[in-house]
Amino acid sequence: xxxxxxxxxxxxxxxxxxxxxxxxxxxxxxxxxxxxxxxxxxxxxxxxxxxxxxxxxxxxxxxxxxxxxxxxxxxxxxxxxxxxxxxxxxxxxxxxxxxxxxxxxxxxxxxxxxxxxxxxxxxxxxxxxxxxxxxxxxxxxxxxxxxxxxxxxxxxxxxxxxxxxxxxxxxxxxxxxxxxxxxxxxxxxxxxxxxxxxxxxxxxxxxxxxxx
Length: 212
Known about the structure:
Order of helices and strands: HEEEHEHEEEEEHH
Distance between the termini: 33 Å
Structural class: alpha+beta
CATH class: Alpha Beta
Mean pLDDT: 94
Low-confidence stretches: 207-212
Shape: globular
Strand order of the largest sheet: 3-2-1-4-5-9-8-7-6
Number of helices: 5
Number of strands: 9
Helix content: 25-40%
CATH topology: archaeoglobus fulgidus dsm 4304 fold
Strand content: 25-35%
């Protein structure tokens, strides 16, 4: 059980770290893109997956998975404290470099401007983009721009809601994600989701066999 006092402290941490988010473009060019996603198995195990693709043809260059323990429950607005460590762990296993990271979660489109994509981007100090399948409560879309708390904090691209994570401008985020979508979500994230989900299912099967 997480206390309100602890949540207040974590909210303050997010607010302070959000000051480190860079909304300007730090990308010279984009040749490779990594996508990450986290799936969940039994007994609070998290299966994180990372997939690097070529930006031009979207072919897979490298993929990795990592199984970690979860110590923080799901609480809206605090996803970074639940999933960031798992994502960072799998990213560190990658042997190839990549130019930008696409995260299944919001960036600055967040009550304290520090969603999961910003959390990971700032901690690793890498360009990152947030992509969410659902619009954050209180936000509105007009002419594909996402307005939240009096600011334009994102853009709708196809069926997803895109926001700056770190070191990428919103315009560049939109351009990159537009080129990555084959289906409903950007290809690197879709591939990472499939990999994480299948790995989690296999983990459940292996655990079930142990008890038979």
